[in-house]
Write a structure and sequence with these properties.
This protein has about 260 residues and is α/β, with parallel strands linked by helices. Helices cover about 50% and strands about 15% of the residues. It binds nicotinamide-adenine-dinucleotide.
């Protein structure tokens, strides 16, 4: 369906980004992986994806808090693939603290990685997309882009901002065959969240099953985690021609959380 397209997926050495990268590659899309991790493991993943899917898979270690490195990653993708058709702004970090104790450095890092990185990458790829009259910008926000929770000031702010950026870009570039949308997942069982389950079970003195049901998924009516495969399938749809008219949307995939 997406053969001969090429993509950059930020934060794709783990979790949701890695799932989206696999789904794109399986559809015939060249993929620029990005994110932190063990260099040997990343290279093994990259080589295995190339072998399995028969597409070009490259890797950029660009730090999404550094605009120069983001621009260099976009240049590398253009050099390797000849074009960038799809970008997925997915890299993100979290930090939880009451507002009066929230460390300034954590605020700055979350806004830089979860929000400003998308601005810098979109800015770098839009000229080529406009010239070719095709582009798909997919931003991974969160249910926290649509609703707030306490102690997550920087994360909630950045994710709300990402939806605003996505909508603004969508309207600017709509007549060039470019769409920009935001995916807003509820809780997804990535390595990050698995660690939080164990930590919270210890902290609250309750079982891991109770943490999942009564703490994490308290607002998620479906009482189950969102699957990485479900989010990846949505990203593939958004990248396809079938989604040409879907733009400026903020799509909740959250088991009913934000409508609870
Ligand atoms: P994860 O920790 O498994 O993956 C995060 C990825 O971002 C990793 O590849 C990491 O190396 C990369 N990354 C972090 N800082 C970076 C930086 N400075 N530069 C480059 N890469 C960096 O997390 P995940 O759960 O897969 O989250 C992916 C996205 O989905 C995030 O934006 C997150 O906010 C969002 N999200 C996650 C959930 C959830 O429940 N897991 C829910 C809603 C939204």
């Amino acid at each position: 369906m997406l053969k001969q397209k090429s993509s950059i997926v930020t934060g794709s050495t783990s979790g949701i980004g890695l799932g989206i990268a696999h789904a794109f590659a399986a559809e015939g899309v060249d993929v620029m992986l990005n994110g932190f991790g063990n260099a040997d493991e990343i290279e093994a993943t990259r080589a295995e994806m190339e072998r399995r899917y028969g597409v070009k898979v490259r890797y950029s270690a660009a730090d999404m808090s550094q605009p120069e490195q983001i621009r260099a990653m976009a240049n590398l993708a253009h050099a390797e693939f000849g074009k960038v058709d799809i970008v997925v702004n997915n890299a993100g970090i979290q930090f939880v603290a009451p507002i009066e104790e929230f460390p300034e450095a954590k605020w700055d890092a979350i806004v830089a990685i979860n929000l400003s990185s998308a601005f810098h990458l979109i800015k770098a790829v839009v000229p080529g997309m406009k010239a070719r009259r095709f582009g798909r910008i997919i931003n991974v926000a969160s249910a926290h882009g649509l609703t707030a929770s306490p102690y997550k000031a920087a994360y909630v702010t950045a994710k709300h901002g990402l939806i605003g950026l996505s909508k603004t870009v969508a309207i600017e570039v709509a007549e060039f065959g470019i769409t920009s949308n935001t995916i807003c997942p509820g809780y997804v069982k990535t390595p990050l969240v698995e660690k939080q389950i164990a930590d919270q079970a210890r902290a609250h003195g309750i079982s891991e099953a109770d943490v999942v049901r009564d703490v994490m998924l308290v607002h998620q009516a479906r009482k189950d985690f969102v699957g990485v495969d479900e989010l990846a399938a949505l990203a593939v749809f958004l990248a396809s021609d079938a989604a040409a008219s879907m733009t400026a949307a903020a799509l909740a995939m959250d088991g009913g959380w934000t409508q609870h």
